[in-house]
Amino acid sequence: MNKVKTIYKKEFLDVLRDRRTLISMIVVPLLLIPLMTVGMSTIVGSQLKKTKAETHKIAIEGADNYPRLSEYIASTDGLEVVSVDDYKSAIADKSLGAAVVIPESAATAVEMGDSAVVKIYYDAAEIKSQFARNRITKSIAAFKDSVVSERLKVLGADVHILNPISVRTENVASEEKMSGYALAIFLPYIIIILTMVGAMYPAIDLTAGEKERGTLETILASPASRMEIAAGKFLTIFTASMITALISLISLTLTAKIGMANFEAGSSDIAFKIQPLSFIVLLLLMLPISCLFSATLMTISLFAKSYKEAQSYLTPAMMVVIIPSMISFVPGIELNFKLALVPIVNISLVAKEALMGNIQWGYIGLVFLSTAVLASLSVFIAKRQFDREEVLFRI
Amino acid sequence: MVKVESLLKIFRDKKRGEIIAVDNLSFECKSGMILGVLGLNGAGKTTTLRILATLLKPTSGTAFIDGINILEKPDRAKERIGFLSGDTGLYRRLTPRELVCYFGELYDIPKKESNKRLEKFAEQLDMKEFLDTKIDKLSTGQKQKVSIARTMLHNPKVLIMDEPTAGLDIIASENIVQLIYEAKSQNRAVIFSTHMMYEAQKVCDEIIIIHRGKLIRSGSIDKMRSETGMEDLDNIFIESIREVI
Predict the structure, then answer these.
(1) Residues 79-118 of B with CB under 8 A from A
(2) How far apart are the CA of A223 and the nearest CA of chain B, in angstroms?
(3) Are residues A290 and A265 part of one domain?
(4) Range of the domain at A131
(5) B123-142 pLDDT, tens digit each
(6) Is A294 inside a domain boundary?
(7) Coil, strand or helix at B83
(8) String of b and e for B74-83 (b: at least 16 CB within 10 Å)?
């Protein structure tokens, strides 16, 4: 046990002096989360705000066919009517937001109590064009309501005759759930990936890197047993991974706490909050997954002869983790007994629930246990690899 | 001090099948003796020395280091061995002081004693000025001195060196030769492999020549001279190989 401690202390000192490991362990989680939550939301939010405030150029073809409607549209805030030769090309080259086409008989049809079909041309792939279309649609809807109201007046009927039932929705979700919802979608993914990245560089450096530099042979010739060497290295990788997970969580909590992370989605702002219990649950869940990553990455890296070779082995491994950890992005998938046994998917889903304030201890226990069993198996395999001469020396 | 008995090492390769790297090899190296291991590339020198250093396990046969069976008590055997090869590296992000103290801890040497021994090595090998400089920043010669300190720190009774001078300049090589002489004078057993015949001729008391894992000639250089009628070790080596091809 003393030798394991000695090896661990030395390996950790070595890891702390490695710039690549420090970047992946501390700098990336410390900067990536604020950048993603604050940076991205600020950019997206300000862009949306700017687009919303912008006046959109539109064209009206057949304005003379229904002057009252075209004047109504032209008087709408945020819309500017311009004349163009070819409105379709103008929309395509983004010089025009949208175009309204009023048919010849529109005014007559409406006055006769009939209906007219007004067409709106826009580019669905362009956000500005979508905004222009929305404003036109709203403007026409308001105009339509005024026409309906006039017609009902003539008939001596009340407007409510068309609206026998009104619908009003009430949100029953707790503040905790609402605040955690936006986080819950992408945070499990980020933390899982960062926990893996935190283990990746130390795993490569302490195995393939040591082979390349000839230090593995040096330590193997020392009185430390293979078991002690493997344990010391594993604990170092595991610590680095857990530090990354912890820094990621702290970084996110602080980002949320100082109230910087606001997603401006439409008219509502969603404030990020992490409840203390959710924080503890997430940290708890990171223990077995970090253990699993550390042992697996150490085993894979040990097969490589060099740092570069190990990196090429770990790239596909990264993909194997990225895909299941993205499950939290998929709406409608809920944690159940079977999914609680699927590695990474289970962590992603249970973390999502915890962030929404839904602490399901039964599932948390099951996920912890199933991941811990897998992690123990990985540690066992990693230890076995340290006993294999063909792996250590690539004979 | 070192007794090798019928050592056999077979590697199993999916493409190449079974490869006999060491074939029923037996030899002995007594205290205060320098034993040279000579052979062509792939003769089995590195595998033999790695087995003696307990890095590899033999398929059959065994070896005794100071009476300890390497198969039964490898960790105790390792405590008596100082292993150095052209491939053994140093932790570049540590300083020589940190590295030596680290290995001191692994050999259960108290920190105070490790530091005392390090000071002695620093004096002998002129290391004082770079004891607290990161190894990454040291020259090849300086690194070699650190390796020697690391190898000798625990006063090993047996020194196993696999091509220790490979890739070194003449000054760094001389440090190794001095280390070998000093180890002999301290009654340690030294086993070392080399490609350089003049080096072996200069320092070795006895030599073994191996080819394809088999021992093909052994004994003192004088004995080999009288057996072959040749003066130079170069010629003796080539002749010995030709005889078995």
Answers:
(1) 79, 81, 83, 85, 87-94, 98, 102-103, 105-108
(2) 5
(3) yes
(4) 54-143
(5) 888 889 999 999 999 988 88
(6) yes
(7) strand
(8) beebbbbbbb
